[in-house]
């Protein structure tokens, strides 16, 4: 997992710097995306090669990171950077990382893995819960904060 | 618990939350197929023109990279203009050119802008960096609205606009949005503009909201925001109410601007209007919407003429003293 976090940070950072250089060239969207994607592929090739030579097997397994998704992450983060500034985009990237780590921790938790694989019907129950959640019309916790001014007097 | 007390108090005041707005109003009253009408400002403008609703004049639209070279021809005869993405959201990507200086342009905040910068900005708009979902977009070049003397006193740069929320053709809530130094001339609340509630019956300003707090003075100019009367208020209400018949969207936010020469103009429409208007008006949207819905039920859901709808809204949403809270709220409890 440490490897995953490091790789995500590393690749996103390199991708962002490539992207910020491309900004000067004023390219069209598709061309820009393709170049960033190429760089992501090159980075991964290099990383898995080094991992193999140095005998670090975990380098190989995380090198199977979804490339296109990483490219889109880089593109999104850099757009947020342009529109809302560096702090905001770091916040977004960190949020993505934290969510990914939490999902990972949950997915490798043996009791849960066992439970879901033995009883796949649980997934249907989950979707039932989500349907219920979709019908919730009440306030969100953040809204209790947001509209606080309306009940203070 | 503290939270449950807040929740009950908000319920009692008929405050609408995001989930409720999305589920019970937007999904229910706004057909997805009608969204392009309001998400694409070019279509909105065309539709408004056909119906005889006043909008800022369109000088030109640029949809392709090659088209950018026609920019100088479009703006040749105009000293000032606005460039905006046709499918932008939240006021992003809007560039206001207020004047010229030799071969350069001067933005509304006084910055000197070169032609290349202008062209690069348009190129960005076309490739879709400001559009919802990153689709290719068009850049609109249009008339720059100059606000009236009255509004200049209580706003900082930029042009204030009037947001009116219309449910099934009935105006339910209105506020004036004033740009601040922080919002950089933009009138969007989440970028730091302030919202000032309006009395629907008279167009008189009430208290204001800034970053979810209640305020009484403009943070930059320190002028009091309450007690001013919006000119041509009748016309504003009528414009807003007519936008429902025009688009068919049942829950609609109508943005109007007040031009020094031409009076009220329709700037854009919004199919997912924000909820902070409630803090500005110090009244719940749910409470007001329920009144309209009960009224429509009693009418058997027949569409009434504009004048009648406005009269109904004015009668029920006038803020003369404290807002009455004696409405039956059986329909609002979860």
From TrEMBL, chain A:
- A Pfam family matched in the record: 7TM_transglut
Q: Which InterPro entries does the record match to this protein?
A: 7TM_transglut
Q: In its keyword annotation, does this UniProt entry include Transmembrane?
A: yes
Q: What are the alphabetically sorted keywords of the record?
A: Membrane, Transmembrane, Transmembrane helix
**Membrane-spanning segments:** 6-22, 29-52, 58-77, 89-107, 113-136
Q: Its domain of life?
A: Bacteria
| Ranges for domain 7 transmembrane helices usually fused to an inactive transglutaminase | 1-150
Output this protein's name: 7 transmembrane helices usually fused to an inactive transglutaminase domain-containing protein
- Which species is listed as the source? Alcanivorax jadensis T9
From TrEMBL, chain B:
Q: Does the keyword Iron apply?
A: no
Which InterPro entries does the UniProt entry name for this protein? ATP-grasp, RimK-rel_E_lig, RimK-rel_E_lig_ATP-grasp
Pfam families assigned: ATPgrasp_ST (PF14397)
- PROSITE patterns, A to Z: ATP_GRASP
Residue intervals of the ATP-grasp domain? 45-300
> Is Nucleotide-binding included in the keywords of this UniProt record?
yes
Q: Which residues does UniProt assign to the signal peptide?
A: none
Name the source's superkingdom: Bacteria
What keywords appear on the UniProt entry?
Answer: ATP-binding, Manganese, Nucleotide-binding
* Name of the featured protein: ATP-grasp domain-containing protein
| Source organism | Alcanivorax jadensis T9
